[in-house]
Write a structure and sequence with these properties.
- By secondary structure, this protein is α+β, with helices and mostly antiparallel strands.
- The chain is built from four helices and six strands, in the order H-H-H-H-E-E-E-E-E-E.
- The chain has a six-stranded antiparallel β-sheet with strand order 1-2-3-4-5-6.
- The longest helix has 51 residues, at 9-59.
């Protein structure tokens, strides 16, 4: 008789089973890592929005804080030339963030009071809670970033970071 070369069906099934077990252990950790990265990005984006709001209010004192997130940004081609910065598109934040969705979070920023607007509120809410992030983040003119795990709106009464 000839000696067979290769692997038996049992050996292949054992290897596949081991790979599936390793994948079952690794995938939840990967998803948690991605959510943590999205949350870190959301906090960083809120810091960017806070800085942009202060710069906007100082640059356009008659307007105060920006009426909306779109006012802080601008179209990519409009921001290429600094001469096009204006109240409607100040080019202080990147185009992706000014559109409102970035790294699994939806962002808003709204100026209030005035004119000129004397306060603002910014929020970051996961696109799909439990998949793109666990916590909601918010900030206001104080510059402090707060978070809550409650799906209700984040306020400055929430837990500060």
């Amino acid at each position: 008789m000839k000696k067979q070369k290769g692997f038996s069906l049992i050996e292949l099934l054992i290897v596949v089973a081991i790979i599936l077990i390793i994948a079952a252990i690794a995938i939840p950790n990967l998803l948690r890592s991605k959510m943590a990265a999205n949350e870190s990005s959301a906090v960083g984006s809120l810091r960017t929005i806070n800085t942009a709001e202060v710069t906007y209010a100082n640059t356009y004192p008659a307007t105060g804080y920006a009426a909306g997130l779109g006012n802080l940004g601008g179209a990519a081609n409009a921001c290429a030339a600094a001469a096009f910065a204006a109240v409607a598109n100040a080019c202080l934040i990147d185009n992706v963030l000014s559109q409102g969705t970035k790294s699994g979070y939806v962002f808003t920023a709204v100026g209030a009071g005035g004119p000129p607007a004397t306060t603002y509120a910014s929020t970051a809410v996961p696109v799909t809670p439990g998949q793109t992030g666990q916590r909601n983040f918010c900030s206001d003119q104080s510059g402090v970033i707060f978070y809550t795990q409650n799906p209700a709106a984040c306020t400055n009464a929430s837990t500060p970071l």
